Amino acid sequence: MGNDDRIRALEALDPGQGRPGYWERLRGQILERAAFELARRREAARQSVTAVLSGWSRSLIPVAAAAAVVAAIMIATEAGQDRSPAPGLVFEDVLGGGLDESAFQAALQSDANANAAAFLAFVEGTP
């Protein structure tokens, strides 16, 4: 298929074929329909930073106030709970750095099955 054949095949898809002035009318209709939005954008481009921020403040201030109220409620409920900070478990504690070396070696060399409760008791140092 030559280039001329392809051009003729594509001309069949052209909505303006056989209708003179189609594209000019279409462009005019599009610009007419978009005139309001284009005018709004032109006006928005002329606004100062203060005017833009003022417009944002109408919706931003109530949202910020609501977020502050939620944060205050969350802080109040957290402060109301009496929690004492638990000491963090350090790797040396698990390895026996803070424990008696003979107890640690005895635990490593024993043939007993693994028991989570016994391990925690060993790590925490409770009998």
How do you describe this structure in short?
The chain is mainly alpha-helical and 127 residues long. The chain contains six helices and no strands.
> Compute the gyration radius: what is it?
38 Å
Tell me, briefly, the overall form: elongated
User: How far apart are the first and last residues' alpha carbons, in Å?
Assistant: 92 Å
The pLDDT mean sits at 77
Which structural class should the secondary elements be placed in?
mainly alpha
Q: What is the succession of H and E elements?
A: HHHHHH
Largest sheet: none
Tell me the number of helical segments per DSSP (H or I, 4 or more residues long).
6
The total beta strand count reads: 0
Helix content: over 70%
Strand content: under 5%
Structure commentary:
- The chain starts with a helix and ends with a helix.
- It is 70% helix and 0% strand.
- The chain is mostly helical and 127 residues long.
- The longest helix is centred in the middle third of the chain and has 32 residues, at 49-80.
- The protein contains 6 helices and no strands.
- The model has no long low-confidence stretch (mean pLDDT 77).
Features:
single chain, elongated, 127 residues
SSE topology:
Elements: H1 3-11, H2 22-46, H3 49-80, H4 91-95, H5 101-109, H6 116-124
